[in-house]
Amino acid sequence: MGKYEITSGVVPAAQKVVIYGPEGVGKTTFASQFPGVVFIDTEGSTKKLNVQRLPKPSSWAMMMDMVNDVRIGNIPCSTLAIDTADWSEAMCIRAVCDKAGVKGIEDFGYGKGYVYVKEEFGKLLDLLEGVVNAGINVVITAHAQITKFEQPDEMGAYDRWTMKTSKQVAPLIREWCDTLLFANYKTIVVKDGDGKNAKSKGQGSRRVMYTTHHACWDAKNRDGLPDELPFDFASIAHIIPDLHHSAGVYSTPTAVVTAPVPTPAPAAQPSATPAVVVPEKSGPESLPFNRLNPAENEKALRAAGVPEKLLALMVANSVEAADLQKVVGDRGYFPADMPIRDYPQEFVEGCLLAAWDDVFKMIVDNWDLLF
What is the dihedral of CA 323, 325, 331, 333, to 10 degrees? Predict the structure, then answer.
């Protein structure tokens, strides 16, 4: 008898869904109808919607920290929505440039910068895979653009819709997801008049979504969906599970989440997603010594002139100014009593933010030494 057990049948699992389409077609509204959804809104698209959302990430490190918090159970939800992929990639590009100390992605040399962006964005998808393995659906929205495409075995080029991300990141997203939906307005072209003077006019504005590949767009699904469906969540609701709600873990709150509330983090489970290391103790309630509450800490950090992107991460993780100054001093970067406001911008962007997971681990290691 072999060491490995053979199983069969359909395995219930959370879904990875990507929705892309032109601006204004309703991608964010569509994503808001997923069960128990919490948004990471990178561009402010949810302002007019009564949905649960985390603070707008001010840096790539903060974005990764938020996703990891969902993965390890610090943020209860049935669905995590990333709105949007292209704005997230822009943060990723900025982080890659800051880490390398260059002003723009082209400064790496021909094509090299986007290779680093592909690797960094892949870490986000790995982390999101961990979210899915925890039984939480992931839905990513993205804008669409028209690009020229040329078949390698055909003559000539033609227009097609693609995701508005780099050509290195788009394939990663397409391969990662279970369901790729292209949403658009369905327009019918009719002839107005007769003979040579006849003109073509577009009619109709019905919103639809496409679920299978076409010469003019990318789409796919693994559930036998019709090629075209009304752009309504009810059309795919039967393939989107609500595993946490069914298990009694998630209950829909009435209040909108507008700010991070630090809570004790459970011990992180072994995972194939090591992109962000979050220590076991990550909130003030889990520490054996007095800490400022989040509001007091934010006020103190602002008074100390801490840059906004760094401030957001420090408040979310209950890090006070002295904690960071000690790590910076211990590592020999700058004197421990040097005010954070005086840290060079390239040090903040290229070291503290770019390697926040490592910086935060060193801070928590210092907390451990206090008891």
Answer: 160
- Nearest C-alpha neighbor of 42 from the set 103, 110, 92: 92
User: Residue 244 and residue 249: Cα distance in Å, rounded?
Assistant: 5
Query: Helix, strand, or coil here: 18?
Result: strand
pLDDT tier for residue 204 given thresholds of 50, 70 and 90:
low
- Cα(308)–Cα(345) distance, rounded to whole angstroms? 12
Q: Please give the Cα distance from 208 to 33 (Å, whole number).
A: 16
Cα→Cα distances 12→133, 215, 243, 367, Å = 11, 32, 9, 41
What whole-number distance in Å separates Cα of residue 11 and Cα of residue 169?
29
* Kind of pairing between the strands at 37-41 and 79-83: parallel
Question: How far apart, in whole angstroms, are the C-alpha atoms of residue 103 and residue 97?
Answer: 6
Give the ranges where the chain is alpha helix by DSSP (H).
27-31, 60-71, 85-100, 112-133, 169-176, 243-246, 294-303, 308-316, 321-330, 345-347, 356-368
Q: What is the pTM of this model?
A: 0.74
Q: Return d(Cα 19, Cα 335) in angstroms, integer.
A: 48
* pLDDT for the residue numbered 370: 57
Cβ count within 10 A of residue 355: 14
Single-letter residue type at 60: W
DSSP secondary structure string, 91-158?
Answer: HHHHHHHHHHT-SSGGGG-TTHHHHHHHHHHHHHHHHHHHHHHTT-EEEEEEEEEEEEEE-TTSSSEE
What are the structure tokens assigned to 286, written together?
Answer: 């889990």
Confidence of residue 203 (pLDDT cuts 50, 70, 90): low
Q: Write out the two tokens for 95.
A: 């982080």
Pairing relation of β-strands 52-53 and 37-41? parallel
Instruction: Kindly state the percentage of the chain with pLDDT values over 70.
Output: 81
Are 50 and 31 in contact, with CB atoms under 8 Å apart?
Answer: no
Cβ pair 264, 55 in contact under 8 A: no
List the structure tokens of 40. 């990471």
